[in-house]
Automatic annotation (TrEMBL), chain A:
Record's protein name: Glucose-1-phosphate adenylyltransferase
Protein's gene: glgC
Domain Nucleotidyl transferase: 7-259
Class of the enzyme per the UniProt entry, highest EC level: transferase
Organism (species): Planococcus halocryophilus
Chain positions of site Could play a key role in the communication between the regulatory and the substrate sites: Q59, W98
Residue numbers binding alpha-D-glucose 1-phosphate: Y99, G164, E179, K180, S190
Pathway per the UniProt entry: Glycan biosynthesis; glycogen biosynthesis
Gene Ontology biological process terms in this record: glycogen biosynthetic process
One term of GO molecular function: glucose-1-phosphate adenylyltransferase activity
Family indicated by similarity: Belongs to the bacterial/plant glucose-1-phosphate adenylyltransferase family.
From TrEMBL, chain B:
Protein name according to UniProt: Glucose-1-phosphate adenylyltransferase
Organism the protein comes from: Planococcus halocryophilus
Domain Nucleotidyl transferase: 16-146
CDD domains per record: ADP_Glucose_PP (cd02508), LbH_G1P_AT_C (cd04651)
Gene Ontology biological-process annotations: glycogen biosynthetic process
Family: Belongs to the bacterial/plant glucose-1-phosphate adenylyltransferase family.
A GO molecular-function annotation: glucose-1-phosphate adenylyltransferase activity
Assigned keywords, A-Z: Glycogen biosynthesis, Nucleotidyltransferase, Transferase
Classification via InterPro entries: ADP-Glc_PPase, GlmU/GlgC-like_hexapep, NTP_transferase_dom, Nucleotide-diphossugar_trans, Trimer_LpxA-like_sf
Length: 382, 340
């Protein structure tokens, strides 16, 4: 037994509910928290957990992700053995094959996995924000001598139906697995983080591949099949911050969580660093007219306005007499004089014109777009 | 690029002693997130120079830890790149730039390289010098030496041909000269000399006073714009610090702040490095607070330079003057009781 763990990071998702934020980049590449991209979280978790072989499966708009991850240097994954391997779909002798589902993405990279020769395979999502020690999870899997271990989280009952819901006995053995049930019988949600004993996973991937009706998905196909055959399926109770950033609102919320010292998501913890590529920019400058409260600001910014409860990415310029609250301002954006933003998400390099205000906003979060600016201009002309 | 670089990082400056107890002048922190050597290394890289010899003297650990194999400057090359060439200063240490005794210890660096010209420079003068332009002017002038100057101030940066440098390294004892700087200052015959007039940002860091002034000068927009050019970025060793956190109730005016800090108190007209903690009720004015230092609650600091990992206990009052800022050495810990 070689005990080797290989992580397979699913990073092909589009994230269509994030609207224009993911028109040109995959969801895992979405900027987050003033300096990060979402995929920094699972990648840093791997590094911090001592996992040094990571496959990143990409499909939708992969260019930013590929160039961002590169050799994996920021995460110490530029290794002679193992390290990070980008795994986009590829052509085979019998044709081109897109990744039809989460399971087929892994199935199509069986050759890669075999060359790594792992004992265990960790399946991760590239679009979740959380800090987790995968070593503890894998140890748990070993202790229970499980075939598959599913990491689960207690969620509020009313939200349970959005997730794969898991019913367990007193020994955390999984009794039932319901993918997005209408009437959930439990509030233990699957986090989409699985450890498989590789031999078993291979067996089930190969079996699933020949079933035409299968959607080739872990939650819908692989896990139910394993359940049915009585394979040993164990739930691992995760405690801590975890967020699936699926919508503009949840993306905004996750950013705001960073400003809440009690949210459980602390980026200032030097014992569990989140690694990211570090652009070479001068320190931030807070001007005489600037006022920053309850916010996070990255390097290269010049702040001359009022900023409250906001996340400011690198190279943002905020001019005088501006008021920004509960907003996320992405890298290279400029907020011109007199603009007022509340609960706004400003995309990278966006220019918010002088005196701009969001028209007709109640309490909702507004993702700024050219249309939004047009709307404001038109109203000014009337 | 037909230019080979010598960064003389062996120069000691007595006036900077408080900041160089455990490091060379070249690794003194500057401008919030940099070390002095970052500026010259970045200028070299931005000018297209990719063969760089750094000639430091002891204590080396801090500098070595900072520049490593030169990755941050893209100088970790299979061919050429960064050469770390420590000098023993068996002559007792010469404080002029490009000391032949030191360079001679690494004669091979010069004889083995193929570049026909050498730039000899230092790390205590911060500039945005374009060495490529300087080389072009040097070649055009036909002189043996070109020295960079700005408004009558010597920037202690010289270009000469490699053959001439090698010849000097073999004959300097007979010629009774000690360094490249020495030859230029003496206008030693039979050589010819040319000046390169530079117009951009510069600061000579050779005393606490000049260090303090140059640092606070960066709070002026025009100075920052001269030093931090978008097309000539300053590279430094990367740290994975999160963005800086401004807690409710903080008050910050005219401050240059690096990442990873937490600001709860009042900071005005100051420079704050990476990973600094300014606690509630603390008042920091006209100060330089370096990496990983902590200013506890209700401190009152003015004209203070706190080196790395300094701990300033609750309620400490320290007021220096613009002419004589108080320096707290690396790792120092100050409490109210100490000051009584």
């Amino acid at each position: 037994m070689n005990n080797k763990v290989v992580a397979m990071l699913l990073a092909g998702g589009q994230g269509s509910r994030l609207k224009s934020l993911t028109y040109t980049i995959a969801k895992p590449a979405l900027p987050f928290g003033g300096k990060y991209r979402i995929i920094d979280f699972p990648l840093s978790n791997c590094t911090n957990s001592g996992i040094d072989t990571v496959g990143v499966l990409t499909q939708y708009q992969p260019h930013v992700l590929h160039s961002y991850i590169g050799l994996g240097t920021p995460w110490d994954l530029d290794r002679r053995n193992g390290g990070v391997t980008m795994l986009p779909p590829f052509a085979e002798i019998d044709g081109n094959k897109w990744y039809a589902g989460t399971a087929s993405a892994i199935y199509q990279n069986i050759t890669f996995l075999q060359s790594c020769d792992p004992e265990y395979v960790l399946i991760l999502s590239g679009d979740h924000i959380y800090k987790m020690d995968y070593e503890v999870l894998v140890d748990y899997h070993k202790e229970h001598d499980a075939d598959v271990t599913i990491s689960v989280l207690e969620v509020p009952w009313e939200e349970a139906s959005r997730f794969g819901v898991i019913n367990v006995d007193d020994d955390m053995k999984v009794l039932e697995f319901d993918e997005k049930p209408e009437n959930p019988k439990s509030n233990l949600a699957s986090m989409g983080v699985y450890v498989f004993t590789w031999k078993k996973l291979k067996e089930y991937l190969e079996a699933d591949n020949v079933i035409e009706a299968s959607s080739h998905d872990f939650g819908k196909d692989i896990l139910p099949a394993m359940m049915e055959n009585g394979e040993k399926m164990i739930a691992y109770p995760f405690k801590g911050y975890w967020k699936d950033v699926g919508t503009v609102d949840s993306f905004w919320e996750a950013n705001m969580d960073l400003l809440d010292l009690n949210s459980g998501l602390n980026l200032h913890d030097s014992g569990w660093r989140i690694y990211s590529s570090n652009p070479q920019l001068p320190p931030q400058f807070i001007n005489k007219t600037g006022n920053v409260q309850s916010s996070m600001v990255n390097e290269g910014c010049v702040i001359s306005g009022e900023v409250t409860k906001s996340i400011i990415f690198q190279k943002v310029v905020i001019e005088e007499n501006t008021q920004i609250s509960e907003s996320v301002i992405m890298s290279g954006a400029t907020i011109h004089k007199g603009a007022k933003l509340h609960r706004a998400i400003v995309p990278p390099k966006f220019e918010v014109p002088e005196g701009f205000e969001i028209i007709g906003q109640q309490d909702e979060v507004v993702l700024l777009t050219d249309e939004e600016v047009e709307k404001w201009k038109e109203r000014g002309e009337q | 690029m037909n230019l080979l670089a010598v960064v003389d990082a062996s120069i000691k400056k007595e006036g900077l002693q408080d900041l160089t107890m455990k490091r060379t002048v070249s690794s003194v922190p500057f401008a919030g997130r940099y070390r002095l050597i970052d500026f010259v290394l970045s200028n070299l890289v931005n000018s297209g120079v990719s063969t760089v010899g750094v000639f430091p003297s002891y204590p080396l650990a801090s500098l070595l830890d900072h520049i490593g194999v030169g990755k941050s400057w893209d100088l970790d090359r299979r061919k050429n790149g960064l050469y770390f060439l420590p000098v023993t200063q068996r002559d007792g240490g010469i404080s002029s730039v490009g000391a032949f005794a030191g360079l001679e210890e690494h004669l091979q660096f010069f004889t083995k390289s193929i570049q026909p010209y050498v730039i000899v420079t230092n790390s205590f003068v911060v500039t945005q010098l374009d060495y490529k332009d300087m080389l072009e002017k040097h070649i055009k002038s036909g002189a043996d030496f070109t020295e960079a100057v700005s408004k009558g101030v010597q920037l202690k940066t010289y270009i000469l041909s490699k053959d001439l440098l090698v010849e000097l390294l073999r004959s300097y004892v007979d010629k009774q000269v000690v360094s490249v700087e020495d030859v230029v200052n003496l206008k030693k015959s039979p050589y010819t000399f040319n000046e390169y007039e530079y117009e951009g940002y510069f600061a000579v860091i050779d005393s606490i006073q000049s260090y303090f002034e140059a640092s606070l000068d960066l709070l002026n927009e025009d100075k920052r714009e001269q030093l931090f050019l978008a097309d000539r970025p300053i590279f430094t060793k990367v740290k994975d610090e999160p963005p800086t956190r401004y807690v409710s109730g903080s008050h910050v005016e005219r401050a240059l702040i690096a990442n990873g800090s937490t600001i709860m108190g009042t900071v005005t007209d100051s420079l704050i490095s990476r990973g600094v903690y300014i606690k509630k009720g603390a008042h920091v004015e006209n100060c330089i607070i370096m990496q990983k230092s902590t200013v506890e609650e209700n401190c009152d600091l003015a004209y203070v330079i706190a080196d790395k990992e300094v701990y300033i206990g609750e309620g400490v009052l320290l007021h220096g003057t613009p002419e004589r800022p108080i320096v707290l050495r690396k790792g120092a810990s100050v409490s109210k009781e100490d000051l009584r």
